[in-house]
Amino acid sequence: MPSTYFSRWWIWAIRGVLAILFGLLTFAVPTATFTILVILFGIWAVVDGITHLSIAFHAGVEHKGLHVTEGIIGLAAGLVAFFFPLTTGVALLYIVAAWAVLSGITRILLAFHLNDSATREWMVGLSGLLALLFGIVIFLYPIAGIVAVALWIGIYAIVAGVVFLGLALRMRAGHKRMLLSGI
Question: Chain-wide mean pLDDT for the chain?
Answer without folding.
Answer: 83
